[in-house]
Amino acid sequence: MAIKIRLARGGSKKRPHYAIVASDSRMPRDGRFIEKLGTYNPLLAKDDERRVVMDLERVQYWLGQGAQPTDRIARFLENAGIAEKKARNNPNKAKPGKAAQERAEAKAAKAAEAAEASEEAAAE
């Protein structure tokens, strides 16, 4: 049985609230789980201590049993100091889109023309 530590969504429409659970990976996201390990409330401020509440002792137990955390849970564990930080690199995500690149090129060309014009005026 493959165990995952993941989020189970609760709350109403546009008001999400998540439970951090240990569950069988074959179960649905909001379906049956083995144990509730904590909560995550994304509506609270990032510096609020109630935003992420975990029973770290039980989380470590499940990690010791071979449970695999999802990406978001791994981030929570890194912030709590349980897991080591992974190097993340997605250079394509930071690149601007095609239209933004075209606007930047047009702006640079316009600035170059203005600089040339000001140099010619200063030379005369």
The number of strands is 5
Supply the helix-strand structural class: alpha+beta
Task: Say what the CATH topology of the largest domain is.
Answer: S16 Ribosomal Protein, Chain: A
Q: Which residue ranges are poorly predicted, with pLDDT under 50 across at least 5 consecutive positions?
A: none
Cα distance spanning the termini: 82 Å
Q: Regarding CATH, which class of the largest domain?
A: Alpha Beta
Q: Describe the global form.
A: elongated
CATH architectural arrangement of the largest domain: 2-Layer Sandwich
Description:
The protein is α+β, with helices and mostly antiparallel strands. The protein folds into two domains: 3-80, 2-Layer Sandwich (S16 Ribosomal Protein, Chain: A), CATH 3.30.1320.10; 91-123. 40% of the residues lie in helices and 25% in strands. The chain contains four helices and five strands; from the N terminus they run E-E-E-E-H-E-H-H-H. Strands 4-3-2-1-5 form a five-stranded mixed sheet. Strand 1 and strand 2 (15-24) form a beta hairpin. The longest helix is centred in the C-terminal third of the chain and has 26 residues, at 98-123. It is elongated, with a radius of gyration of 25 Å. It starts with a strand and ends with a helix. The relative contact order is 0.13.
